[in-house]
Amino acid sequence: MKAPRRESAVQLARRQAAHLLRNILHGDTTRSANASIKTLIYQPSIRNKKATMALVCQTLKYLPVIKEVLENAEVLKQKSKMHHVEDFYVATYELLFGKEFEATKDIEDFVLARKSAIRAALARLMVKKKVSRAEELLPAADCNFGPRVRYVRVNSLKIEVDKALEMLRETLLVEVDDLVPGLLTLPADIDLHTHSLVLNGSLILQGKASCLPALALAPEADWVVLDACAAPGNKTVQLAALMQGRGQVLACELNEKRIKRLYETVDVAGASNVKVMHQDFLKLDVNDPVLSQVKAILLDPSCSGSGTVYRRLDHLLPSSANSSKEPGGVDAQRIQKLANFQKTALRFALSFPVVERVVYSTCSVHQQENEDVVSAVLDFAHDNGFRLGHPIPQWQQRGLPVFEGATNLLRVKPSEEMDGFFIALFERNSSVTVSSDDLLLRKYNQENDEHYIITSAPVNVGHFVVLPVVGSQKCKHSIVFIVCTLTDLVGLYLDYISKKAYGLGRILTLMRWLYGTLPLDSASYLNRSIMADKEPQCV
């Protein structure tokens, strides 16, 4: 009995490509894909990755043409039910557009036997479309695809940049990025997944755009920093490196599967100043002894991912062409749901008591997830003493001009070299630095612009003091506050104590008197509507 012949490299690539295409196209049709094309190809089970990726990508690139040719040649009507259509897609690509085509199994024999009909169908299609070359049948955007460079970031927690460069340049062509510290560029066809420096955490496979949010946050070395939606952890360990392994980075992640990846990333990177938290960011207690010390927050929440289509190769999927003229077109209802979550998360990040810098970032190209989210929370941010910062000034492309101040926002246009990204930086005004751990400004009636400041004790707010006065009888869980200068505080408070002025009318009288003594720029902490003779609403 003859032993089975060993599968050749060509056979292996075709078989794996057809199998991957089956999964990719099924996931795209059912909107159930949970991994990108590149992720699927770089699975450990896939051998001969370079040839397999080329075959998958080229077949997807020409898929509309291949489908029309096979239909016109009536090839699929004659195929056996035992064979998958993706095998025919791969074989037809090889026959029409590959360098050479040699049949290695029965499906390829089947296609090769009908090569005259297939080639004639392609010729008729080219005449119909009035083109002289098959490449002209493709959309212009698909003529060139895939990254032109590969980015890798040196993990300074484990190795110096100069040392990493010395080791890489022994065998590879490497350049140093002129913006992101420790970021290197290599030719796109270099596969570093199994490189020793990647496996031991000295190098992090991270795109340039993905490096910008941490760079914009620019935390100080001794700060407590929160990475709100941390997995897979590349930005987390970048923050740890920017802080030189000092301070503390709290990495929050809720998803059970993604947090395992986060733990692995942190461990391999040697980021000892990172503490992983398996929690829902929106349910964190801002008064927790550790969380109440957070000085900077990186918020990169769930988004449509529409800016990553070139890196993920999603622009090759049929749905990308059918659903939108923008790369990575997605369902409008889904975008709105994401935007609602993003607004909630950003407001929560801005409510941390002593946070000084908050970066909001997405890998989306959609205005609804970017400028519109920032615009929606601006009033809340201003009420909490924040303004928009101008991150990475040397970056030329800024936000869409949809509101005043949008030029402070940062955009990265998706391309073959970089993912599409969006960054907004919120900085607390130095004149409104809150020293309390539990100060929270809540806007509960936007129509009437009514505010209460809620705190458990007198706290400094710039040159003013927020003083707890009394709880409303109707709203037993709320407290009314007055705001006064330090000069007036002693006399006012003694008057308040001596007369035991616990009645709401007396408090409002004091507020009326006090309001006229405050400069206009600080009066935002004292609402005009509180001056009216009415009970305050509950908060």
From TrEMBL:
UniProt xrefs under Gene3D superfamilies: Sun protein, domain 3, Vaccinia Virus protein VP39
Keywords: Methyltransferase, RNA-binding, S-adenosyl-L-methionine, Transferase
CDD domains hit by this protein: AdoMet_MTases
Entry-linked SUPFAM superfamilies: S-adenosyl-L-methionine-dependent methyltransferases (SSF53335)
Coiled-coil annotated residue ranges, if any: none
A GO CC term assigned to this protein in UniProt: nucleolus
Binding site for S-adenosyl-L-methionine: C229, A230, A231, P232, G233, N234, K235, E253, D280, D300
Pfam families, alphabetized: Methyltr_RsmB-F (PF01189), NSUN5_N (PF21153)
Methyltransferase is among the record's keywords: yes
InterPro entries in UniProt: MeTrfase_RsmB-F_NOP2_cat, MeTrfase_RsmB-F_NOP2_dom, NSUN5_RCM1_N, RCMT, SAM-dependent_MTases_sf
Molecular function per GO: RNA binding; RNA methyltransferase activity
Domain SAM-dependent MTase RsmB/NOP-type, chain residue ranges per copy: 140-429
GO BP terms in the entry: rRNA base methylation
Catalytic activity: a cytidine in 25S rRNA + S-adenosyl-L-methionine = a 5-methylcytidine in 25S rRNA + S-adenosyl-L-homocysteine + H(+)
Active site, UniProt feature: C363 (nucleophile)
Membership in a protein family: Belongs to the class I-like SAM-binding methyltransferase superfamily. RsmB/NOP family.
PANTHER family given in the database record: 28S RRNA (CYTOSINE-C(5))-METHYLTRANSFERASE, NOP2 YEAST -RELATED NOL1/NOP2/FMU SUN DOMAIN-CONTAINING
Protein name, UniProt field: SAM-dependent MTase RsmB/NOP-type domain-containing protein
